Every structure is written in C-alpha cells, then in structure tokens.
Amino acid sequence: MLMTIGGVPAVFQGIAAIAKDDMIVKTRNCSFAFSSTGWGWIYLILGIVIFLAGIALAGIALFSGAAWARFLGVLLAGLSVIADFTWLPYYPVWSIVVIAVDVAIIWALCTGPSRSNW
User: Fold this and answer.
1) Chain-centroid distance, C-alpha 108
2) Which of 36, 47, 65, 114 could form a disulfide with 24 if both were Cys (CB 3.0 to 4.6 A apart)?
3) pLDDT tens-digit profile of 79-114?
4) Between 50 and 29, whose confidence is greater?
5) Can you give the pLDDT at residue 115?
6) Which are the contacts of 37, defined by CB distance < 8 A and separation ≥ 6?
7) What is the mean pLDDT of the chain?
8) Cα–Cα dist 100/47, whole Å
9) Which Pfam families match (predicted)?
10) pLDDT reading at 44 higher than 80
11) d(CA 74, CA 113)
12) Distance spanning both ends of the chain, measured CA to CA
C-alpha cells in the first residue's frame, strides 16, 4: 500500500516541475545539476508506474506470494530512492522523507513473510 500512496506525490512533483520551472528552488553549488523539466517528466512517469504497480502488486501478486512481485517492488522503490536522491538540491526535507518511505518499502518487501512459508 505504501507504493500506491508513494506514487501519488511523485506524480504531483512531476506535474509541478513540468508546469512551472520557476516554482522549483535550486540550491547553489550542488554537485549535480539537472533540468527540472526533465526531472519532472521522469518523476511523472515513475510516479504513475509506481502507483499502478502498487495497485497490481498489492492486490494480486504479493498476497499470492509471487517472488517476481517482490523483485519488481524492490526495483521500483530503488529507482524512486535514486530519483529522490537527485531531487535533494531542490527539496531536501521532502526528499529525505520519501527516501525513508522507500527504504521502508524495500525493507517490508525483503523481510515480509511469503505465502510459501505459511
């Protein structure tokens, strides 16, 4: 369920970055610099994929114990961690919160019981 909930803010971040570049505040002297419009598109696409995968994974595959669903969930949450790490110069507090949620998702998917163990 966290993946579903986590995908929605990413979609809104992507829309905000695409719609209005000057809304994004960038710190000086950051070690990497990217176009906020480009990251907006990446966030929009990643947010939609995470949201849809969260619905499909939570509703169908994870509860049946499919290993591929765990792998896909960990992969998508890992991509979200990378995207939020690169978003740190723009919104550091928000990025750290979302990274913490993504780490919780990865932890839950890696340590949760599977149906085969029940």
Assistant:
1) 15
2) 36
3) 888 888 877 877 788 888 888 988 988 998 888 766
4) 50
5) 53
6) 17, 18, 21
7) 76
8) 16
9) DUF7144
10) yes
11) 15
12) 21
Q: Give the Cα separation of 71 and 101 in Å (integer).
A: 17
Query: What is the DSSP secondary structure assignment for residue 24, as one 8-state letter?
Result: S
Task: For residue 31, give the amino acid letter.
Answer: S
DSSP secondary structure string, 47-107? HHHHHHHHHHIIIIIHHHT-HHHHHHHHHHHHHHHHHHHHTTTT-HHHHHHHHHHHHHHHH
Size of the chain, expressed as the number of residues it contains: 118
- Is residue 47 within 8 Å of 10, Cβ to Cβ? yes
Rounded to the nearest 10 degrees, what angle do helices 67-86 and 2-19 cross at?
Answer: 30
Instruction: Flag whether pLDDT at 24 surpasses 70.
Output: no
